[in-house]
Amino acid sequence: MATAATITAWVTLFTGLYALAASVGELRQPGSWAAMLDEFEKREGLRFLTGLFMLTLGAAVYLVNPYNPADWLSVAVTIMGAAMVVEGLVMLAFGRAYLHFFNRYLGGVNRVWALLGAGFGVVAICLAALRF
User: Fold this and answer.
1) Measured between alpha carbons, how far is 107 from 86 in angstroms, rounded to an integer?
2) Where are the bilayer-spanning segments (predicted)?
3) Exposure string over 104-117, b if 16+ CB within 10 A, otherwise e
4) Which of 15, 51, 67, 116 could link 92 by a cystine bridge, Cβ 3.0 to 4.6 Å?
5) DSSP-assigned letter for residue 65
6) What does the alpha-carbon distance between residue 78 and residue 68 come to, in Å, rounded to a whole number?
């Protein structure tokens, strides 16, 4: 169970697990991220729900994580929560244009992004494990 002292570590752990699992999925089925971006770009309802989910999840991370300026991981998790809020708002306000940018400019390098995501996931999991 999470305590105030371990919330940052738990958020980091689950973020790392998410990044690693999503990256493994893309590496196993190349092109799935590009197909997902295509679907998001075409579907208004999906963009709306995604933006709402990102806004809500980001707000939860931002509000629950104990901000400690002396702890760099706590600061990073707080910034991540704030960035998720901003991304959710951008998705709600400018979803099609925002996704079109990512689909057009980043869609062709999925393997590189998947490897970077997997590396980030492993590092985040290790950082979280050091905090427990």
Assistant:
1) 22
2) 45-65, 72-99, 111-130
3) eeeeeebeeebeeb
4) 51
5) S
6) 9
Question: Which of 23, 14, 117, 95 has the alpha carbon at shortest distance from 60?
Answer: 14
Phi then psi for residue 29, to 5 deg, are -130, 80
Tell me the one-letter amino acid at 118. Answer: A
The Cα 101–Cα 80 span in angstroms is 21
pTM equals: 0.89
Distance of CA 50 to the CA centre of its chain: 12
Q: Which whole-number Å values give the CA distances from 131 to 35, 73, 118, in the listed order?
A: 37, 10, 20
Cα–Cα distance between 126 and 4 in angstroms, integer? 20
